[in-house]
Amino acid sequence: MTSQKRKLLETYRALAENYTTLANILEASPDLALTTTTDIPTTSSSSSIAKPKRKKAKTKQQNSNKPKRPSSAYIFFTQAQTEAVKEELGESCSMRMVFTELAKRWKELSPKQKEPYNRMARESSQQYMRELDEYSQHIDDDEIDELEHDESSQQDTKATGMKGKDTTRKPMATTTRGRTNIIEDSSDEETTDLSDLSD
After folding, report:
1. Among 42, 71, 121, 150, which one is least packed by beta carbons within 10 Å?
2. Whole-model pTM above 0.70?
3. What tens digit of pLDDT does each residue of 125-165 get?
4. Predicted confidence (pLDDT) at residue 113 exceeds the cutoff of 60
């Protein structure tokens, strides 16, 4: 055994002893313990630990009359070629294998071979724009405001490359010789000295 492995093993043993000592102290003094011993999982499996529930994103109610977005050239290609690829790969192939093969074939196509699919995509886009114009004439003012807000937020997201993230600079904490200061960004607020909080 190398000296590094030996040192690492000794460190782990010392750490285990320290945790055992800490557990004994907490059991002896229940007022020091933050949780009861029944709250601590006894098994090493992660399935017994409750994970916090994620908040579901609020989904905006979609208008069923709104036209669907146009398909891309790749989507038209996959719709046309999926069955042929399934037959070539056999019955036991997964959809993942099918779409991997479709992506590979799409990359290998020349621009001339992609042209029919690009034409279908352009036609689909033109049809979508016509339907969207017709649809926008029939919606009321509230929905127009919502539509404009959605489009502007999408443009903002594309411009910044960030989805809803705050891009303003946050104050930085600096530590110098045991003193922690919060540095505010170009504001007249005084800096907060956090060294008084620690004992």
Report:
1. 42
2. no
3. 999 999 988 888 877 555 666 666 666 666 555 555 555 55
4. yes
* The amino acid at 169: R
CA distance 103 to 97: 10
Contact 82, 102 (CB under 8 A): yes
Q: Which residues contact 25 (CB under 8 A, 6 or more apart)?
A: 32
Q: How many angstroms separate the CA atoms of 118 and 122, rounded?
A: 6
Comparing CA positions, the residue from 106, 86, 105, 87 lying closest to residue 97 is: 86
121-135 CB burial, b ≥16 within 10 A, e <16: beebeeebeeeeeeb
8 alpha carbon, distance to own chain's centre:
36
Spatial distance between the Cα atoms of 139 and 188, rounded to a whole number of angstroms: 48
C-alpha span between 73 and 122 (Å, rounded) = 8
- Answer whether 127's CB lies under 8 Å from 70's CB: yes
Compute the average pLDDT of residues 49-64.
74
Q: What pLDDT score was predicted for residue 187?
A: 45
